[in-house]
Amino acid sequence: MKRLSFLSFAALLLLCAGGCKADFDKVNPYENSLHTLEVRLVFPGKFSLLPAGGITVSAENIDNGAVYSALTDVNGKALLDLVNGLYRVSTSPVVSDEIFNGSEDGVRIAGEDRSVTLDLMYVKTGDIVIKEIYCGGCKMSPYEGNYQADKYIILHNNTGSTQFLDSLCFGSLSPYNSNATNPWVTTDPETGASVYKDFVPVIQAVWQFGGNGTTFPLNPGEDAVIAVNGAIDHSAQYPLSVDLNREDYFVCYNNTYFTNVSYHPAPGDRIRTDHYLNVVIKTGQANAYPLSINSPAVVIFKAKGRSIQDFVLEKDVVIPTPGSSIDNVVCIPHDWVIDAVEVFNGGASGNRKRIPPVLDAGFVFLSDVYLGHTLMRKVNAAKTEEEGFEVLVDTNNSSNDFYESQVQSLHRNVNGNE
Asked: What is the pLDDT of residue 4?
């Protein structure tokens, strides 16, 4: 019996080898679990007649990071075949030299086809942009351990005219980390779309450049470095770190509000006192400014119509963080934001956007911490050659604009410092 069964099975295999192969090739093993997501793009207002074909639309599976892409047809529709899951759908087309972006979080595919409409937003690029975010720290080599008191941010004048840093504000958003519970973004029960507040919640402190309006000029293509922690030569003790004791650097330093000298030591001898950023308001209880090590959401902004000092005194501007008894936030209107960058934790699942698509339609991953890695904005090579100064890519979509570099731009092996 056993031999007969074996021979019968072998014969079946031989038969299939000759006659079943074509049928197996036709079978899609995912046929019963793939569903079509139709994405329709709609250009805003006066741009409604722009050609909508050939635009790349992407859907990222929020749970596993898998990304799927498709091109739109002449009617502005893209079809993506997706397995069940929760997706982040986005696009950042450049049409007739105009930049747009659109994004929708929380698009759920669950057992059937679905269609969504992405209302594209016209991108107004910033004069001053965030060029680099170094927040992840490095190894303490040749010693044991990890180091993270050397965070910095670089701003860049991306225009052909002189800009001024005077009164410019800097902050990070609540929640501190991208994979934390976000009380500020809700979900539309009918569409599943993410619903953002009409403000960005700046947490712990608002920092501001001083000056009288023309004190701190930034020429075309020039950078301004902000030492978020110590403006000292960190590399003197830890060679994998950076030297932030430079005369043209700025620093987040206020020993009244942030007393932890491990993170906020007295600035180095080359740092000018007028380069200390001011604390407009402190809204939390931390003794060191807590910029996330793995996934900050960073914004720069300027108040309109009144000073930021007057603004924070207005009713309902400083409000409690839901679920927290120690942290308040400052509600900064969207139209005050000059630039914003969303960073996702590459070592975690469940990342959720904090910055609305109108300000940043995407995100950039920081793969891990304590590697000396940094997040850099891409250079627009064609524009740089044309303008004669460094022009950076700016589409208000960090997925397109940024990349993870293996080493800090201020590391002495990169910038040639001795």
From this structure: 40
pLDDT at position 141 is 95
Task: Tell me the backbone φ, ψ of residue 42, rounded to 5 degrees.
Answer: -130, 120
The pLDDT value recorded for residue 190 is 78
Query: In Å, how far are 83, 194, 385, 387, 394 from 381, measured between CA atoms?
Result: 38, 35, 6, 10, 13
Query: pLDDT per residue over 111-123, tens digit each?
Result: 899 999 998 888 7
The whole model's pTM is what? Answer: 0.84
pLDDT of amino acid 32: 53
Extract the tokens encoding 71: 């091109």
| Domain boundaries defined on the chain | 35-122, 128-415
Spans in the chain with pLDDT lower than 70: 1-32, 413-418
What's the fold here for domain 35-122? Immunoglobulin-like (2.60.40)
